[in-house]
Write a structure and sequence with these properties.
It is a single chain. This protein is mostly helical. The chain has one domain. Helices cover 81% and strands 0% of the residues. The protein has helices at 2-73, 81-108, 118-137, 144-147, 155-173. Helix 1 (2-73) packs antiparallel against helix 2 (81-108) and helix 1 (2-73) runs antiparallel to helix 5. The protein is rod-shaped, with a radius of gyration of 29 Å. It starts with a helix and ends with a helix.
């Protein structure tokens, strides 16, 4: 009878011990799962906050002032209002935005999603902006795409608008 009581007491302690071990491992796995979800959310937030949204906003700003550039860029009368506005827009808005975008790319390109589309677009943008700045600084009143085979990569706008929207939708659906 003594052996039976020891077995019952031993097994009664065994079950809670086993349950505690399973509970510990289950909780640990759940914590790892939550931490992984939190890291994934933080990565998407960082991509949007530091890379995609800042570039997207500057591209949209450029898009909104670009019509002023075309209106006066070809004007031969350097005293006309259209000419003056276009050159102000070009030097003080468009080029500033381009340089800010380059700065963002330089600092945060590692946050760009690794797809086949963004690399060539960014490289073409860098080439375009570099040549455009050189033309402006040297007083040449031409577009880089016309005289130096460095056109503005027109697909870059759509890429950033679509990618930003897609990442924002993913982020909006994520729960921690």
């Amino acid at each position: 009878m003594k052996d039976t009581l020891e077995t019952i007491n031993g097994s009664s302690l065994l079950l809670p011990a086993v349950l505690a071990v399973f509970g510990f491992f289950g909780k640990s796995l759940y914590d790892i799962y939550l931490e992984d979800r939190k890291r994934d959310r933080q990565l998407i937030e960082s991509k949007l906050q530091n890379f995609y949204w800042p570039i997207c906003i500057r591209l949209k700003k450029n898009e909104n002032v670009f019509r002023y550039l075309f209106k006066g860029k070809r004007d031969s009368d350097k005293e006309s209002i259209d000419y003056k506005i276009s050159h102000y827009v070009e030097k003080n808005i468009l080029m500033n935005n381009h340089e800010e975008i380059l700065s963002i790319i330089t600092s945060y390109r590692y946050l760009a999603d690794a797809d086949n589309e963004i690399g060539p677009l960014i490289d073409a943008f860098i080439k375009h902006v570099s040549i455009y700045k050189a033309l402006l600084d040297s007083g040449i009143n031409e577009f880089p795409g016309i005289i130096s085979n460095a056109p503005y990569p027109s697909k870059i706008d759509d890429y950033f608008y679509e990618k930003t929207k897609a990442l924002q939708e993913i982020l909006d659906k994520k729960r921690i």
